[in-house]
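Lipopolysaccharide assembly protein A domain-containing protein, hydrothermal vent metagenome. Tokens?
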Amino acid sequence: MRIFSIIISALIVLLVVTFTVLNSEFILQIPEGKQDIITVTTIPINLIFLEKPVELNFALAIVITFGLGALLGLLSSLLVILKLRRSNTRLEKKLLKALPKIDMKNTMPPIDRGMR
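Tokens:
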């Protein structure tokens, strides 16, 4: 199961990197008369975050969104796991407290060995 999750994680990372490379569009700007100076800029998108515009590369915005979604999913599952562990610990303590009170001889039905 662990190998399966590692393979799935590697595939997701590979897909995100491929998406980033394929969607990072570049503009080559060559100033007039200066053929030796080439500047490379990416095409930005404008995002409005908390009423403040932010310029980001589209692929970077998608990768950040994907990462935040993965982080939020991890945090939400972590809360459920911690709650289940706490419940499990509480039930184990109750079981350990109740075990000495149980008489195992009287709880099992007698074994019928047949007539010989």
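Strands lie at 26-29, 39-42, 44-49, 52-57.
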